[in-house]
Amino acid sequence: MLSQNQFSWALETKEHPSYIDFGPVDESVMSNPADMVWLNILDDNYWGYFWTNYLTSFTLSNSSEIWDLGPTPAITDSGSSCLVGPSNQIKILETQTLKGVNVDFIDPDWGNIFSCKKYLEAGKLPIMQF
């Protein structure tokens, strides 16, 4: 039984592997606990409580532009490395991301496939901020 109804996860970085914690957050694994981001789950019967909140804009580290999203509902999916959303915003993210990337292959359903780890380690993936 969990002592708290929450979990935390972090994606792989150059210095650390991905991980997930169930229960209270373990701040000892964080480089800076003040950088932690909380996502509140919104009540949504259609999606089964996966909606987090509404995104209003995003920026990428390889561009000075701020792209407006609306607000647009966002879904949290820690088990996926796919970008899913409105096609016009996904096209912007795809175009900016592919600037420094050689695509390994194009999947008919998922689109451009490449090694995120390889380009992350080379510093060629833009940082996305929502």
Descriptive tags:
130 residues; alpha+beta; 3-stranded antiparallel β-sheet; two-stranded antiparallel ribbon; 2 helices
Largest sheet: 3 strands, antiparallel
Q: How many domain modules?
A: 2
Radius of gyration, rounded?
A: 16 Å
Average pLDDT metric: 76
End-to-end separation? 33 Å
> Number of helical runs?
2
Placed side by side, the strands forming the largest sheet appear as 4-3-7
What would you say this structure looks like, in words?
The structure is a single chain. The protein folds into two domains: 1-38, no CATH class; 53-129, no CATH class. It starts with 6 loop residues before the first strand and ends with a strand. The mean pLDDT is 76. Strands 4-3-7 form a three-stranded antiparallel β-sheet, with helices on one face. A two-stranded antiparallel sheet has the order 1-2. The radius of gyration is 16 Å and the shape is globular. It is α+β, with helices and mostly antiparallel strands and 130 residues long. Helix content is 13%, strand content 28%. A hairpin with a 5-residue loop joins β3 and β4.
